[in-house]
Design a protein that fits this description.
Elements (H helix, E strand, L loop, with lengths): L10 E6 L5 H7 L5 E8 L2 H10 L5 E3 L16 E4 L22 H14 L6 E6 L10 H12 L3 E8 L9 E8 L6 E2 L9 H8 L3 H5 L3 E2 L24 H8 L4 H13 L3 E12 L2 E9 L17 E7 L2 E6 L2 H7 L12 H9 L4 H24 L1
Parallel strand pairs: 1-2, 1-4, 2-3, 4-5
Antiparallel strand pairs: 5-7, 6-7, 8-9, 10-11, 10-12, 12-13
The chain binds S-adenosylmethionine.
Length: 383
């Protein structure tokens, strides 16, 4: 792909590990934020979804290790990387960043170094990942990422943000934000909720030179969420036959069964979310159905195994109906509008959304952190 000049007027972003392009949706702030000038993803299904929704954005459908600086237009203001999380995920095996898929971060980083060598390094770099990155490889992965950024002259900081502050989905994620040549708003000391105790513990383990280049980025806490799981449901999605529902309910633990029975007895309409999990009791593996009725869905996951399927449980007038969460509901749980074109298959939609970043979280970072830093720089240049 040849070099293309980046548009002048906009703040520009490149989106790596772009998936369906949800980071770009958040960064764009509906046209008031960043203009994505290049995206990259290795996966064919993700590339199809990306192109269907962002037909004007150049996408390199290939391994990030094959992307070269000459394919990146102009000098991007921000580069975003949502590198694969499977190997550091608390839900999976702990291979750490050295494992094959998570190692893709270093392909991204090589590219950032290439841009730097040409004087085109972005002033803002963001790595989104699972919170497990704080502890994977006994903390060495987090230290390696932050260390590489600090060594390149960036001020580094991180935030642990749960999308549940905006959306009816519990989805804690780690955002490492590095800035160079621009000043983002910061706090004198770590502050809840975005500087969690596990983040502070990970920071304490960092080598001294990284700690001295560290910033506790400031981000406003949003007003209380007014969306509930019930508000994202599709009204016409078919429920399971009674026998299938009964088979699932038979997997409830006594505690979860008691909770469900109390709701049934109240006669109220309540919507819950449930996952199947394998639990070990007295040395034996048990299939359990775990239900929550706190108005939140559980964290969306990629539907690669039985335990990652999420169910919707509707209790009304003492009756219980169950069904799978739909792809459209998953998209709504990520803050994606219904105008977003989902793949035709439910499983591809669920995979797309299960891997993605929640749009309102990216919007909050854009408004609260990236734009103040970058527009401050523009104001200085104009003065
Ligand atoms: C956690 S998902 C990020 C999804 C994205 N943020 C979104 O909102 O849809 C990680 C993505 O990295 C892609 N990926 C994995 N290894 C890659 C590689 N070596 N080069 C480029 N992309 C890769 C996967 O296909 C996947 O879409």
């Amino acid at each position: 792909m040849p070099i293309r000049p980046a548009p002048d007027a906009d703040l520009t972003a490149c989106e790596f590990f772009a998936g369906g392009g949800l980071a770009g949706l958040g960064l764009s702030l509906d046209g008031a934020g960043f203009h994505t000038v290049l995206a990259n993803d290795i996966d064919a299904a993700k590339a199809r979804a990306f192109r269907a929704n962002h037909p004007d954005t150049p996408l390199i459908h290939d391994d990030v290790w094959t992307v070269t600086p000459d394919q990146i237009p102009g000098a991007p203001d921000l580069c975003w990387a949502s590198s694969p999380c499977q190997d550091v995920s608390l839900a999976g095996a702990r291979g750490g960043l050295k494992a094959q898929r998570s190692g893709a971060f270093w392909g991204f980083w090589k590219l950032m170094q290439g841009l730097d060598a040409e004087g085109r390094a972005p002033p803002v770099i963001v790595l989104e990942n699972v919170v497990g990155l704080l502890t994977s490889g006994e903390g060495q992965d987090f230290a390696a990422v932050c260390g590489a950024m600090a060594e390149a002259g960036y001020t580094v900081g991180a935030l642990e943000i749960d999308a549940g502050l905006w959306l009816p989905q519990s989805r804690p994620r780690l955002f490492i934000v590095a800035m160079r040549g621009v000043e983002g708003p910061r706090l004198p000391a770590p502050t809840q909720p975005f500087h969690s105790s596990r983040l502070i513990a990970a920071w304490e383990r960092l080598p001294e030179p990284v700690k001295t280049n560290w910033a506790w980025w400031r981000l406003a806490v949003p007003p209380r969420r007014n969306l509930d799981l019930a508000t994202v449901l599709e009204s016409d999605a078919p429920c399971f036959a009674p026998a299938e529902t009964q088979a699932l309910l038979a997997m409830l633990s006594p505690l979860h069964r008691a909770r469900l029975e109390a709701i049934q007895a109240s006669g109220e309409r309540r919507v819950g979310a449930a996952f199947r999990r394998v639990r070990v009791k007295n040395g034996q593996k048990l299939q359990r159905l775990e239900i929550r009725f706190d108005g939140l869905a559980g964290c969306l996951r990629t539907p690669s195994g039985g335990s990652s399927r999420q169910y919707v449980v509707i209790v009304e007038g003492g009756r219980i109906a169950m069904r799978r969460l739909t792809g459209r509901e998953a998209a709504r749980l990520m803050g994606v509008s219904d105008a977003y074109r989902l793949p035709a298959s439910e499983s591809a939609s669920l995979k797309l959304m299960g891997d993605a970043v929640a749009v309102p979280v990216v919007e909050a970072l854009t408004r609260g952190l990236f734009l103040p830093a970058l527009t401050g720089r523009q104001a200085e240049a104009a003065a």
